[in-house]
Amino acid sequence: MAAGKASLVALGLKFCVKNKLLSKSDLPSVISCIRRGLATSVLSQTVEEPSATTSPSSSFDGPLEHYNGLIRDGLLREDLQQKAVMEKLDQMQKNLRGYSNDRSSFFSKFFSQKKPPKGYYIYGDVGTGKTMVMDMFYNHVETEKKKRVHFHGFMLDVHKRIHRLKQSLPKRKVGKMAKAYDPIAPVAEEISEEACLLCFDEFQVTDIADAMILKQLFENLFLNGVVVVATSNRPPDDLYKNGLQRVNFVPFISVLKEYCQTLRLDSGIDYRRRNRPAAGKLFYLSSEPDVNATLDKLFDEMAFKQNDITRPRSLKVHGRMLTLDKACGTIADCTFEELCDRPIGASDYLEMSAVFDTVFIRNIPLLTLNKKTQARRFITLIDALYEHKVRVVLQADAPLDELFVREHHDDHDHHDTHVLLDDLGISRDAGSSLAIFTGEEEVFAFQRTVSRLTEMQTEEYWVAGERSSK
Q: Would the pTM count as exceeding 0.85?
């Protein structure tokens, strides 16, 4: 194998020298690099795969075989829709073998690269196994240039990169007009250098700042050879539905469809809600007798095992401080007001997820459309905690399925709409036909939140969230 590669390289070098693409004086250093490269290539072919003890998926040839093995062992029940999606992902995993979007190497300028396969956009109802099949595929893809991220976290990172690039520009001199600078293409280039495969969990668009840049961002990612696999609760055509200035977002949907095939995974079964052993009583109604005393006792029992004292805790988030009133070690005891009534967001919740393995959330009210901002924060909070396997103890005014209540708009809703339009510099006439606050997005996202919170009550989830032994 190495001899065959060496012959091809020699022919390539002769062609480059003959056509003056490479000088003879460059040959020694180039040949040295090639020799090292060939040696690495030969070594990589003889290195054994990690054992099954270090990588659970290493004993399987691909994601489909892995999926079938779990069914055979009784760890999963067969789901024909899951299997159909897995068959597609299994073929894609094979197509990605040897694929790279690296265009910086010398020989890539002269030899055509492998064309990137089309990605997949997998959508369906909550709890149907979309994340599971994507993660199984991701674990079997044989490249180091891959990233698996929650979509919300990815967009936070994109905005940070944009901000960093803008800050690095030289300051404008007095009296000089600043040249227009578009940081999106360079940001896409950065990300493309880091990954040839991006796997997104929970692809959803609720933020106008995200919506306005997605087309350009993803066009550049795709042109740079990045392959995308994403999961979502919504089909592509329903993304950012009823969103502000959606007409400017719609072209992104065509770009997504051009580079990603759409797969529906919706067997009608929410596997998070299937009967599984509970981890004990982790959900309390506010109407229960002495509920606060019961939660205080539960917190004290958990805190007793921590090598710390109960005290307020401050976390540094992007140069500012997020202060929580009560924490002990890796346990935080918070109220809904503390976490969702304040102007904090995803970056704060991600920092909490990194520091704490257990979070108490007390006094969760009925989430009406009058509390739409708090509801959005609560959804984002639970997404972050779930993604990082943080355990929760909840106290709420109603059972999970009844927490979100859809109501008719009132004058306060219209006031909020006008304030938002003014903040964005959009005339009220232009925005009058936009159903900005229909609550539809919140209702849809809350279905996922309830499903996740149900799973978070199980013993399986609680054990997975144990960090003291890791």
A: no
